[in-house]
Every structure is written in structure tokens, then in C-alpha cells.
Amino acid sequence: MTDFSECLRAAIHATPERPVMEFKGRVFTAGELATYGDALIAMIEAAGVPEDAAIGIILRNRPIHAAVVQGLVAMRRPITTIYSMQSAQAIAADLDASRFAVVVADQEDWSEPVAAAARRNNTVAIALDLGAESAVELVGEPVGTISADYRRIVPEPGIEILSSGTTGTPKRILFPYRMLIRAVESITYGRGSETLSADIVTLPFTGIGGMCGVVAQPLVARYSALLEKFNVPEFVDAARRLRPTLLSGPPTIPRMLMDANVAPEDLSSVRYWYGGGSPFPPELQDEFEERYGIRTIWAYGATEFCGTVISWTIDLDREYRQAKRGAVGKALPGVELRVVDVQTHTVLTPGKAGYLEALIPAIRPDWIRTTDIVEIDVDGFVWHHGRGDGAILRGGFKILPEKVAEALLVHPAVLDACVVGLADRRLGEVPAAAVMLRDNALSVTEPMLIEHVRTLLPANHVPARICILPELPRTTSLKIDLSAVRYRIELEMGAENDAPAVNSA
Q1: Which of 91, 250, 324, 347 is exposed most, by the fewest CB atoms within 10 A?
Q2: Where is the AMP-binding enzyme C-terminal domain (predicted)?
Q3: Is residue 155 reached through a cis peptide bond, with omega within 30 degrees of 0 on the bond before it?
């Protein structure tokens, strides 16, 4: 594949009559989606937008949004993604700071604060609306002259994607379009004929996983049911109708399917579940397979890697499932991995834990260091032990939050769990947890869960607090939002401290 954009452009226009996507009961052909992308390109060119100008897109999981992203990438127009899951004031502030030459958004996102920000910055404002006579149209009056200090992406076109924000404020990471071949590799590696299975798309387009799916879809040529946001009824309905053999998504989705007691016959066509984004405990994998007969094929990647770098494959699963239980897989072809000491950064021998580093020539020529704690065995399998930068230091003892969360997840009443560190005057930090219970487990209490952890882990690992929440706060990519969890725990602790004393007389 010599030029990704050229190949994508050819694929988009190859079979215009072919049905490629469904959304809320409506089926879209390849030609229909291509028309939306072509209309946007024509509008941008008519406005005289420079080729290095970043096109800001307030993305939603909707077919027309997928179409315009594909069209822009195919024509090598730079893109900067913008979260739609924020206030109008926050979006307006982003537009003021970024000074885009063009902003594309769904009609419902063109609120007055956002439109006013576009006017202040001489931004070409374009609305997307499938219900309108013209699905792609200008907002307001045409811009006379684009500001000279517009946001540029140089020296080559690419896409700026927000990191997940799991551990803090999301940051934009630029991927030149030549790197997007990794998007196709991430989706097709090790799947064989299962790659052609119909797909149910749940990952948000603003994240690397969702974006990889968007740009790869025309090249992989598989039919997709697009969900604006994951929900069990819509997901199960699509699975019943499309009979996919392979599905994918973070472990949150299998947990929710099991908790909703989805009937096995509703997922009877599915043979494999590909996932990543956060750990999927082996015990939960076993429960999922026992209930539905679905084998889990796990992987590891990051926004910085433009997709997956470590994965199981169907063949590896057949040969090593029991022997390498708990591993996240092996390096993809063209990716080199190593482990370095957390303190000295010297390269470690197999079987020793430290920071993961990856060498991916398609992205850059030097090693990329992560703060993920892993070990790699002599056969090249990788075990993920949590994030080094998330370790909790309790009185000098290092505690990995993932280890405490795993202990909580063993409890039959716990559907999901998250552990964070809270400041403590005496110990420096203490672990605190937030859990989401299964629907039939409302009688479980905090003391019961604390005692459960105490039976499994050393005393210094036992959380100082365990807050039971209706659901755990998440980022747009369905990862648990650590900052929001910490805030919720501190909020509950503050409310308890402020409560009036009970008169026991």
C-alpha cells in the first residue's frame, strides 16, 4: 500500500451501490457516504481553505461523520478531532484557542456559543444534518477572509486525535496519514476470514480505536451497524439480525451483557470477542466463554502507537490459551518490544517487570517509552501489570491499583471496579475504590467489600474507602475516568464529614 489516502479514495468510490452501514434502522450505501465526503471537500475548496489548514470536526458516532472523515483523509486534508461530549462553552473555548480555518459539526452542535466562536475567528462553519435537504451546508454567512493565524498541520497532512484522558487532561497527538496503514493492520491482524464478519461499532470516533475503524472500514469492506452510544438492547438487536462471527470492544461491554442476562441464543453466531483498552481478568473471560461460548482475543495498544501493538490471534489462542493465561498477547509484525528498568532504564532480561518500550518504524525511528508495567517471557508473550505512574505509595509501600481492583472484581456482586490514590497526612497516600454492583446485588455494603479485599490481599492494599456508585464515570472511549472517580469519592467523603452528628441519647 504505497499511499494510504489514494487507496482509501479508490475504496470509497469502488462499489457505490454496496450497502456498507446501518444506523437507527436506515441503511447507507458506499455511494451515499462518498457523496457526503465529496460535498464537504467541494465546499472547503470553494472557500479557498489552504491545504495545510486543520479541519476541526466535532465528532459524533453518526454515518455522515464517518463519511466526511473518510473523505478528508482520502483527499489528504488535515483533521483535528473535537469532543462533542462537552459543554458548548468548552467547545467555544477550544475554537478560540485553536483558531481553525474550518469547523465541521452536526447541526445540533452549532449552538450560539459555538457559532459565535466561529464568527470571532473567521472560521468557515459547516453543518451536517441527514434530515435536511442538503446534508452538508454552510452555517451563517460565507467567510470573507480566513484568519492568517489559522491552525496548521505541517509538514505533512495528518489527523490530530485526543488521547483517552484516562489519567488526566486529554492531549492531542498528531498522526501523519502515512501511518494509518497501522489502522488496517490493527483491525485485520490474526483474524483470518473473520475480518469480513459484519461489525457492530461501539467505540467513539474521537478515540484511536474508533478512528482506526472509520478509516479502515472502506478498505476492509465489511458491513457495520453503527451505535451512537453503546446500549444493550440496540447491540443485541444488531447481533441477532447480522449474525456476526466476531465482535470487539472493551471489557465493559461483555460485563454489561452478562449483567443484563442476555440470552446465549442472541449471541450464538459470535465465535470470538476482540478487545482491549483495559484489563479483562481471566476469570471474567472464562465466565463469558462458559455462558456464551465466545473466546476472548485480547490486545494492547495506545493512541501514541496509532492502534494495537500487542495482540493474541486466533492461532495463538488455539495453541497457548492455557499455557499463557493472563497475557495480552505478542508483538504484531513490524513491532519490536523491550522492557526497561523503572529507575535506571536499562534493558531487562525476559521475565523481569519494568516499563514497556516499543519500536514501530512506521511511526518513528526511536523507541517509544510507556509507563505501563509489563514483563515479557522467553516466548515473547507480554503480561501487563498496570501503570507505573498510577502506583499508590502508602507509607513507603507501592500498591498497584489494578491489583486491588482485580481483588474487588472477584467478588460475585461486583460488576466493575476502579482504585485511585487519595492524599493522606500520615501515610502520604491511601487506596480508595469505587465499585459498580450487579443488578441483583444491592444488599452488598462497603464493610463487606473491605473484608473481602482483606481476605485476598495484604493489609496495606485494603482500601481506606469503597464507594458504591450506580455506575462508574467513563471517558468517551468507555475507559474509567480516574479523575472523575477520585472526585466522586472525595465528594462522598466530604458529604459524610459535613453531615450533622446523630444524637444517640
Answers
A1: 347
A2: 404-479
A3: yes
